[in-house]
Description:
Elements: H1 3-15, E1 19-22, H2 39-44, E2 52-56, E3 60-64, H3 69-75, E4 82-85, H4 94-101, E5 107-109, H5 117-126, E6 133-135, H6 141-144, E7 157-158, H7 161-164, H8 168-181, E8 186-189, H9 192-199, E9 201-202, E10 214-219, E11 223-227, H10 234-242, E12 246-249, H11 253-259, E13 264-267, H12 274-279, E14 285-288, H13 292-296, H14 302-329, E15 335-336, H15 337-349, E16 354-357, E17 362-365, E18 383-384, E19 389-394, E20 396-398, E21 401-402, E22 405-410, H16 416-433, E23 436-438, H17 443-455, E24 466-467, E25 481-482, E26 500-503, E27 506-509, E28 513-516, E29 519-529, E30 532-539, H18 557-574, H19 580-589
Parallel strand pairs: 1-5, 3-4, 5-6, 11-12, 13-14
Antiparallel strand pairs: 1-2, 2-3, 7-9, 8-10, 10-11, 15-18, 16-20, 17-19, 19-22, 20-21, 23-30, 24-25, 26-29, 27-28, 29-30
Helix pairs in contact: 14-15, 16-17
Amino acid sequence: MKKEIVLLQEEMDKENIDFYLVPTSDDHNSEYVSDYFKCREYLSGFTGSAGTLLVSKDAAWLWTDGRYYLQAAKELEGSGITLMKDGTAGVLSIPDFLAKEMGENTTLAFNGKLYSTAFCMGLRRKLAGKNRRMKIDIDLVHKIWTDAPKRSCKTIYPFEAKYAGTPVHEKLTSYREYLKKHNADCQVLNGLTDIAWLFNLRGHDVACTPVFLAYAYIDLDTAILFLQKEAVSEETATYLEEASIEVKDYDSFYKFLGSLTGKKILMDQSDLNFYGYQSLNRELRQIPGQKYTTQAKIIKNDTEISNTKACHLRDAVYMTKFMYWLKHEIKKRNLTEIEVADYIDKLRLSDKLALDLSFETISAYGANAAIVHYTATEESNAIIEPKGLLLVDSGGHYLDGTTDITRTFAMGPLSDKERTMFTTVLRSMLHLANAKFLAGCRGSNLDCLAREPMWEMGIDFRHGTGHGVGHVLSVHEGPNNFRYRVTKANLDAILMPGMITTDEPGIYLDHQFGIRIENELLCTKWKQNEYGAFLKFDYLTYVPIDLDAIDIDLLSEQEKMWLNDYHSSVYDKIHPFLTIEEQEWLRKYTRAI
């Protein structure tokens, strides 16, 4: 067994704990976490962005989803940890597994700040009986992780109105109207992107996500931010004072929750962590309800839409220049995955409005691309030869927007199989992007449009077809998305004008190759008639799709028209920003077929 697991088991024995859970999370249920919170990675060695470790006195298991099956199998090799392929036949969910494995008079422990109240309440119901206990205030990992990084505390800065569109006082007014509508007096916010959006502030406490560590409290008269005061610059302090926003110390939040009395609190159990929920004064009347920001921030205002279009145009220029370089350079010499990632990263970060990458660039050649969220390391860094397929998934945060794009490139001759699969992915992307649909539809209603070309071949992919994109927040922003597996607990949002969602189907053949094509789509109005309001999607992403990889004979006339129309727009928008040589090349790669 991995030595870190053994050390944890020794601590469990001291505390009389039978099972210990370690998720991929921080105190705010963030998708990406700063180094201080990478406890699961420290214990298991698995570096993917999603996974949960469960440790017993003599065993350990790691759950992860289909994006990471291959990566996890490789990284867990020799660790003694059993890989649990979440979502596959025969693999129990964590609550069901614990209900089966925990006997009488056993104890499960975890850090309750790392789990939502909704998850823990469900887990508690699942484990009821047999005198099974849950301890939620125990952080065993940092007891043994003696050289753990310190908690991030970087400078917070105002997000100017010319980028945010709606000033903070208007957002707070709308929030208070929302509370009144729900007959509530107050609400607390735990999620970092919600807090950053609401208060028009940004920071650098989480990798690839321009947010800051904070909690928030809003009532009908008051707004309080709980911040690490060392992170509050003089400019930010002035901004908060002028907006009548009170600042309290970050670490005083849970004590504050215990002091609340005489209020009706709007309770979003999917947001507040379980430790926070347990800290609330028991006399508070709780009103179940979603937080205001869940819906408000996913419908972009006119300023955000205008800005994101501008940022996507610049980003598309960088990606097109990158594709030009890639196609020419591979004819001269072999490349490496890391070299390719570094090249596009430098182009993006040279932008005068660039803040950061929106996630670590995926540069995956050949068989490595079958690992959905592969990251090139010095050990895995593949040599790219003038043949086969290279998948590059990348994006950036700019002051005026967030981008996310995937392109798969033919580096030279392809097999018939590679060409067929590439064309199938292209067809899938085009079918969803060109959907027309009645208002009231969810992404889950449309997901089959993308999957149908693959289902006709008896194949599928193990990830959602698309996710919402935050505006200079998290690149992954729900609840708007495209996926067909829906439950009451993860019901996706009704699609509305102003929402941005990615369209990114893929095919991944283990130990062979992986293909994904991704554009961002903006939901817009189409037409109104006696049947109701119809909506459609507009592209935000305008970058060539590699014609070298397409089997034209597999495309219908409609699909050819969709692709030709897209490429015509790509050329019109991008060519003014290119050199003469790049323009000539782009004309070839956006030609009508």
